[in-house]
């Protein structure tokens, strides 16, 4: 499914079909094994995940050890420190949460690029071994993706997608469901509004010529979203699958 991790940003920008996996646990050996399964990328969740910077650094090293998947990081916030730190650890792309406007999207792009294209500070202590290390090459090889997960972001989707230098947008389905009036993150009573929102974002991304991604609870949903016009999709997470597998084996053993 995947090619070289160095091609990840170019494939994303070309709107090629890309499938990834989500990691929330500080478990480098587990992450290393997951990175060799054939996913195009493995994204480490530094916003809601259960790992700190050392965990993120360990995960990037583990992903690169397999040499097939690109390592990405969902950063804690749209902030130059968090984005720069993730990129210095070797991430080939960042997913930036809670971006509500084109101005905020432009700021995220700037944090991802070295001058004169942006404001990223130069200090690739680890990324220099894998990405770049010259600033122009690093700028080309790093993807900037922002999340659309609020009512304000949805209203500004066209302007966000048209942001110069932005490589993709990413739907956070849980927050978007709540933003649309859902009582829970999976409330089906807002399904019609949710589906309309997905169609809107996918179309705005297509019009702007950038990638459109979404988080999915399983592979079947990922296939459905890709068929609906999304260009990349992330499947579940290590913690969810660990619990699901353990529960399934317990049921089998006690049946």
Automatic annotation (TrEMBL):
Superkingdom of the organism of origin: Bacteria
Sequence ranges assigned to domain HpcH/HpaI aldolase/citrate lyase in this UniProt record: 19-242
Listed InterPro entries: Aldolase/citrate-lyase_domain, HpcH-HpaI_aldolase, Pyrv/PenolPyrv_kinase-like_dom, Pyrv_kinase-like_dom_sf
Record keywords: Lyase, Metal-binding
This protein's record includes keyword Metal-binding: yes
Pfam families attached to this UniProt entry: HpcH_HpaI
Record bears the keyword S-adenosyl-L-methionine: no
Family the UniProt entry places it in: Belongs to the HpcH/HpaI aldolase family.
Protein name from the UniProt record: 2,4-dihydroxyhept-2-ene-1,7-dioic acid aldolase
Organism per entry: Streptomyces hygroscopicus
Source species taxonomy: Bacteria, Bacillati, Actinomycetota, Actinomycetes, Kitasatosporales
